[in-house]
Fold:
Amino acid sequence: MDVRLRRVAVAALACSAAFAAHAAHAAALSVECGPPPSGAMCLDGPWFEFATLTVDVTQGEARSRYGLTVASGRDLLATIEEANPNYRGRAEVLLIDGSLVAEKSDRSLPSAGADLLNDPLLAAQEVASLLQLALPRGPRKVTKATPVRAAGTRILAMNTPGMSSYFGPPWTLEGSIAPRAKGAFAFELKLTYRIARPDGTLTDREHAHRYTGRVGYPARRPRLPDSTPLAGWRIEAPGGALLEFPTLGAARRTLGVAPPR
Structure:
């Protein structure tokens, strides 16, 4: 305890009791999804139904730019640009019919293959979660420039099959979102938080994430064209076999994917 507080016994006892209560509350928090007051908040809802997303993410010295197209069928295209004090690199990764993983990369990123999807998918989860948190009625109810504000005392948990983010309280969300043409929305978000460890305890230092970009909810999901070139891409099948296709259409024909009606 601070030496200055020891001069007054009553003040010391009060401070100790308050600290103990705070520590007990912090220790009771969980990163597992669950009800208040201790369960983590795990969001879901209409903001997660996006078809396209581009986002610039800033945290300290780290800068990332991600693009996602959740296309018709079971295709998913991600673009990745990351720069931080440890590395700088870029890549594209394409999940074809939910089974083949095609990669085009400068080999500077620490991940490869399907693992390249982890960062962009987690960033998308974060953006959708924050919008869902502040504007739970979804994109259809946002018809003009709208403030995005929220605050809380529970852990915010965002999960993908490969990665998780745990934002600890007290956290504060500020920003704005505005509609654009063809079901798109431009957003700017800032989340201030403390890092939550897997055991539910929190770090003392405050951090901030900033997200700037666009998210799209078109009437129909886009279809990636058959003419999309795949020459020079590393294409891996389940089990690790490497394949070659000149175009996305050739890969679809091999997989027996039906053409659009």
In short: The mean pLDDT is 90. The two ends are 71 Å apart (CA to CA). The helical segments are 9-28, 118-134, 248-255. Residues 159 and 165 are 7 Å apart (CA to CA).
